[in-house]
Amino acid sequence: MFKYRYDGVFSKTADPILGITSHIMPKRYDAMVNFHLSERCEAMDEYIKKVAEEKDIKLTYMHIMVAAMVRMYAEKPILNRFVMNGRVFDRKGIYICFAMKKQLNEDAPEETIKIKFTGEETIFDIKRMIDEEVSKGRNANDNDAVKTAALLKAIPNGLTKFAVGTLKWMDKHGFMPHQIIDLSPFHASAWLTNMKSVSTEYVYHHLYDFGTSSLFVGLGKEKLEPVVNQSTGELEVGKMLHAGIVIDERICDGFYYAKSIKVIRKLLRNPELLEKPFELSEEQKLLNWPKDKVKSLKKEIKARKKAEKKENKVQKKQQKKTQKAQKREQKQLKKAA
Q1: Fold of the domain spanning 8-281
Q2: What pTM, to 2 d.p., does this model score?
Q3: How far apart are CA 65 and CA 219, in angstroms?
């Protein structure tokens, strides 16, 4: 309640201007900012080919994009914030959601997949995690999120409105049961829709006002286009990948947003950087690590602070002894004079 949430920690370092902005624009769709990302595919194609030949691992653009997004959140943790009830929160964990068709036909059901990351994962870890979840989604019956939605749909319309309204109120005030937050695809760092899988152009997808998602990426199908070679200044044919990015501007300023997008660009141009695990700060570990590891880390921090406090006391005592000895020596010198 108030500043407490199961899925986030109230941010004490958020810019005061952003805090006021969240009251001026209380709805997430009021604060949407659109950005068009376009990158050449040659570097990714070469990397995908190299990994297939050397490691016998089949990567796709989506694997690279998700890995780049996770690394972006690790390098730029402020982007993993969300606004709820006029307050800015640091999210616990990095969650990426996407929807998939169980089969590529119009009548096939759609499955939502939500994966938690810490930010330390390599691209190979992320590929394995995505592939495992996709395989589960295709082979299993409806997941809990779909079952919950089906249950709400089955009851009378008036009761559905009341139930959804109640859930929104609970979410707004921090009373939402953690079981619902854990399965809800709307409570995530970002959504990724892969329009390439259905041979469609990129889109600017709206942000949902329900839940906490602050970023939406619409990945389009790659295509050949005339582009200017930045090294030679000559016009040439390039294979381009386009994405529409929509962000909640209340979580960070424009400069931080721009720097975050540059991280994505850097990684799409140099995907091999994603092979190295990222070293999280202690604050990030407390937010992103699983509960058991966080508990152990808190014990370590407590023990360290206790040892530091003890060491400081010893140093202060030693300083006092030194000061007393110096004063006695000065008195003796005065008497001798």
Answers
A1: Chloramphenicol Acetyltransferase (3.30.559)
A2: 0.88
A3: 9
